[in-house]
Structure formats: C-alpha cells, structure tokens
Amino acid sequence: MGMFKVLVSEILEETDHIKSFKLVRADGRGFDPYPAGAHIDIVGPTQVVRQYSLCSPPYDLDAYVVAVKREPESRGGSAALHDRLEVGSELEISAPRNLMQVAGSADRHVLVAAGIGVTPMISMAYQLQREGKPFELHYFARSRELAAFTDLLEERCGFGEKVRFHFGIPRDGQPAVLREILGGLTGASHVYTCGPEGFMDRVLSLAGPVLGEDNVHIEHFQAGEPADTSGDAAFEVELDSGEVFEIPADRSIVEVLQENGVPVDTSCKEGICGTCVMGVLEGEPEHRDNCLSASEKKANDQIATCVSRARSARLMLELF
Fold this sequence. Notes:
The protein is of the alpha/beta class. It has helices spanning 78-84, 118-131, 150-156, 174-182, 197-211, 253-259, 294-299, and strands at residues 3-13, 18-25, 39-43, 49-53, 64-69, 90-94, 109-114, 135-141, 163-167, 190-194, 216-219, 235-239, 244-247, 277-282, 285-286, 302-304, 309-310, 314-318.
C-alpha cells in the first residue's frame, strides 16, 4: 500500500471533542481525483494507523479535510492527533479508498448521519450538489454543541434546506423520525448511512425492506462484535499462482500469506477498511467483515482476508 507525506495546513476546533485537519501534499503537488465517500489511512504521531473519512469536496484536489473525534479510550490514535499535531506537522497517509460511493442512478439520495458519521456524508453531498442530483442530508446528534460542521452545513456549503438537523432525539424516538425521513422512497431510491452501529442498524431495518439491502449503503468506522471462534478449523488457501497454504484455526489468511512472502496490503486488520480484500475463484467464504456489502457477500467472489475464513475445505484466491 503506497503511502505519501502530507503537511497539516489548518486545524479547526469543530466541537470540544472534534477537530478537523486540512492536509496538503508535502511535495506541493495536488491530489489525484477520488470519488466522494472515500477514506484514507493516517499514520499518527505514535505510528498507530487509523482510517478517517474525507469530508472535503471531492473535486477540490488542493487539500484533504478529515475530522477526528477524541475517543475516551484512545491509546495513541485520536488523542495523539488532537494533542500533538500543529500547523506544519508532517504525516503519512494512503491514497483514498472507497467502500461507499454515490449510486450512479437513483431518483432520490437520502444521507443519514449520526455523530462523527457525518464526515463522509458531507463529501457525498458536495458531489450530489455539484451534479444537480436530488438529495437530503439528515444529521442526528445529541445536541447542537456536540455536532460538528453545523456552520459549514448551514451557511458555507450552499446546501440550504437539503440539510436537516435532528438534535436531542432519544434512541427510542429515532425510529419514528427515521420513518418520516424514509417515507416516499421508491425502489429506485438510495440511502447512505454512517454512525454508531445501533443507529445504522435502525436505518437498515427500516429502509432495507422498502429499497432492498443493495440500495442501503453503510460506512462502518469500527469493527463489529467479535466472531465466535470456538468452532474454527484449519483450511487451505490456493492462490491463482498455484501456491497452496494451510490456514490454522488460530491464524488469519493474511497472516499466513504475509509470512510466506505474499504481498497482501493490510491496514485496520479488523475487517472494516477493505484493504486486504482478495477475489474468490473457488470455495465458499465465511464472511466476518464489515467492509463488503450484503450483495458482495452474497456473491461470494470476494473475501476480507484479515478476519474472514472458509466454510469449504479450500479457497482459491486471487490478488486484486
């Protein structure tokens, strides 16, 4: 995975616990084009690698903007970015990767965010606005004070009434609001959501039966509940080059491949970033990731090799 150096050109206090960082290339060049909804890896001051969604306009190639929420349990990730970075600090980042993109054809795009999950939605809204496509951005937060980018969304983006805030709504009150938001959708509509797992589950449970799961796009920024590994067994992986490796019950595919010199890129190692995804040519995967969509998992032609395993005795894989 190629990494390159950037400089922090601006830091803004979005809330008491969220900072945004504007990044420019250290070599003075512009960034390459990327689709809205992308995220990047950032190597922090403590060498911890974390993924952050880009929330800047995807057509602005002069700078990237990411927002970082200070997590109370942080052990060198978000806390180090908050405490150690200053204007002029140098970081290493990856090129953008996309797990959630704007659908090419839809009669209506509904973006539903909670908390820090608003970050990829801002980039997607910029793209939809530029292309003149119908969209709404709904932003849930516990209070206005805890919501990032409110001034940007209200005034500077030019989104107008397409942005709607939902502050202070308790969890048991969210389904009623979500039903109202999702009312009138058709099978050609698409919904995009990012936020805490429980919130995204509620959006999916309400929108999925109407649209189908393929039309509900989810961006995970944390791993799901750990899988039950008590029944794990060894299996074989054959690469399209003909090499065969045994994957023990207590090792991941990517660990075994990397130890044997196979160049598989990794980042999160938790099944959320999609870096280590490989193609499946034969065999049946057991999906344990949060990066492949429901339709991708159903197709069984890809596997996140850092966490997923096999239901069959052997998988034949190809490097992407």
